[in-house]
């Protein structure tokens, strides 16, 4: 493969074309490595006069000039980055914000790999394969790029800015177009193995591709098979997580007092006096169980006699169980895939083509031991035979001594809960393309794809079975050997296998998504102007998406511990579309106008059920001289509501709120800055109005770091609209000096403004606005619209925060992308006569603003330079590479940089801002050696200096595994064969 950076700049006008010159050494021996000034285009098999379809355009034209900034990434980027998945390679680029990858999607969230341009959301950029939509992986319109085997990818084009007029809905922040490899004759094989230097994070990838041409080259076929596997990484394998996620759900178990039925103060004092405790004990505190049957206070650790190392700790005077070591920080992954495409020239003017994709992938996630977290809660009757005598004394002193009581615990006697997320994806596509009336071309295709997501939750603890054991007069001994004794660590960990089997089950659910597409397009010249032909493209299409979700009965009835229930759901949307694009060359090869052209595009889309929308685009390009291209465009982009946003039933999720005062927590908690601050009295009054009993208000504490988030669809949603603007230049001066001839420079400014944003309200934002942490509810009224989203149980505990989909406020972002490239052929500089060269390349992103308006009319908040898990927004981000390459050898150093970040609390709760993240730097080295013309070896080390894991205060896990390197110093070796 011949790969050219500067040719891409000259011919495509690419703002930041990142190819082998920026990342790697040669691809195969007979191809010079990343020649900075090659005499041919990036695709040498194609004649220079052939029409080239540019990503982001419906028009094919000889000069192939793009008016939108395009990043072009070679297939070698994945290999030289040491990753086995595309998302991890692309997320290194400044324009991407880490979204779904190995560090996300845990606790049954799907484990999908998604892309997020400009941090605007993974469903606001469109992901394509050869310019066509890929199968959807979830109800929210996301594409899981885990389904794309790296072996079929020739390059990737990334467009910044709206492209709805060209591609339709979803292309608001941009487009990522994966291009499959060109047809070839022969066999290609590739294998790569990697691991951490600690030997605990193995990654393997292998592929085989076969190509042939037949019938005098009229027919062309390609088949690619691949296999990839990635080991999991557990928190227990990294010391950083040893004390993370200090949960109040502990293996000792604990009695949770009911504020309306508290033990008497006298009884409590009498029991603790036996332990030598004379200070008064707050009646509302949770009381844990020591192995000898005595009690202790979780808050204050009074009389705690359990372990304080390993799985247990006393943190801030409170008994906690750090569950960071139990978590699966990076998910296990396995994928098998097959891809085939072929075409046959029926006549010189007509070609039939087809394509098939099949993927079977499984992501395995774990979340540690199950806990008694979400309502409805199990309770223990006073008749339970295992109740310790000291607790019986307290129970008998209550106003209603016969009432069952609530308990809190982590099921340490049962294996950790986890999920297998299996995806089976199939896509079938067939079409015809050719020429009409000589210079006009057409392309029509139909496709059908299906994604089946089978989720299996293993070691799921069933509430109904637990309740049966707790209610049994013999403690459940007649149901399973020994019964269930939850009082104390020793008893909880002595649970028999029979009881473990009785209490647990494998809980299944199935999602099925289908997509049907029919599309036809024609394009060609209308007439000629002195500067060239005026070209027109017309497109018509139809698309239908359907969705069905079938959860098990245990999920529907909310019968699984630590999991919020889900209801069955189904729905479908469809769209009929028409689009047109025109390109008008105005001047050519005249003084100050080497080229001047304008263009426009329009699309009409009729969605069922949300109605019709229109999008449009205007663009212009000007080359005053051959070495300088100035271009810009303005677009109106749209995004119609997806199936999930329209039809999703109430779906529960875990919402991390942290523990006060270091995090926002529950603002009604007596430890929170809301209660201890200047307005604590007003917050107390609001908490009383929300249902926290007067008897509990001055000792109220929320027992855990998370609550429920209830997401629900809304059929009344209307489409989002965005205005996007970009302007920039590409300068390729072609200096005669060999020291400067390999220099190029590009700068592009982008501006994206989205209105009528479809989103759920962030749960932390709800808390901040209800309790006036950001000044939104100065009257501290419970009738405040955000306060109405908060649900508490009769004891005042925070049960859930409603997060319905709504058309909310606005989302605005703008910034600058810069690309600088330089290379020197050593022979041209008088240093030898070989093919060697040195090169340097830097892609730099500067984020000016990232403004969010939660609701129309509300204050605008700028999150630029802040950190939140899954959406870091650094002011500066860069990827820089320096290296040496020749026909047979290449080596280089890559520097990944992310600027400092303030914690998101600096914006959401400025009075309680937490520590931010310092500038983050990673360095990698890589090398390739061509042993023969058809055999290449490669290797490299990532995170060369073993950069430590940074602390992210706003993250429940203490860091952001989707953004930062959890593994440490790693290596990879690989080989490529051609036959």
Question: What's this entry about, in short?
Answer:
With 979 residues, the protein is mostly beta strands.
Describe it.
- The chain has 979 residues and is mainly beta.
- It is built from 16 helices and 47 strands.
- The chain has a 22-stranded antiparallel β-barrel. A five-stranded mixed beta sheet has the order 3-6-7-4-5.
- A hairpin with a 2-residue loop joins β27 and β28.
- The longest helix is centred in the C-terminal third of the chain and has 10 residues.
Report the total helices: 16
Report the mean per-residue pLDDT as an integer.
87
Overall shape: elongated
Radius of gyration: 31 Å
Percentage of residues in strands: 35-45%
Give helix % range.
under 10%
Residue stretches low in confidence (pLDDT < 50, at least 5 long) are 1-53
Major sheet details: 22 strands, antiparallel, barrel
Let me know the number of strands: 47
What structural category characterises the helix and strand content? mainly beta
What's the N-to-C terminus distance? 15 Å
Give short descriptive properties of this protein:
disordered N terminus; mainly beta; five-stranded mixed β-sheet; 979 residues
Element layout with pairings:
Blueprint (H helix, E strand, L loop, with lengths): L5 H7 L7 H4 L28 E2 L6 E2 L8 E5 L1 H5 L5 H5 L34 E5 L2 E2 L19 E8 L3 H4 L6 E7 L5 E11 L6 E12 L4 E12 L2 E2 L11 E2 L6 E3 L8 H9 L13 E3 L5 E3 L15 E3 L2 E5 L5 E3 L1 E16 L2 E19 L10 E2 L8 H8 L8 E4 L8 E20 L3 E22 L1 H9 L17 H4 L4 H7 E26 L2 E20 L1 H4 L12 E22 L2 E16 L2 E15 L2 E12 L3 H5 L3 E6 L16 H4 L3 H10 L16 E7 L7 E12 L12 E12 L2 E3 L2 H8 L19 E3 L5 E10 L2 E16 L11 E17 L6 E3 L3 E2 L8 E10 L3 E10 L3 E2 L1 H4 L11 E13 L2 E8 L27 E9 L1
Parallel strand pairs: 4-7, 32-37, 41-44
Antiparallel strand pairs: 1-2, 3-6, 4-5, 6-7, 8-9, 8-47, 9-10, 10-19, 11-18, 12-17, 13-14, 13-22, 14-15, 16-17, 19-20, 20-23, 21-22, 23-24, 24-25, 25-26, 26-27, 27-28, 28-29, 29-30, 30-33, 31-32, 33-34, 34-38, 35-37, 36-37, 38-39, 39-40, 39-42, 42-43, 43-45, 45-46, 46-47
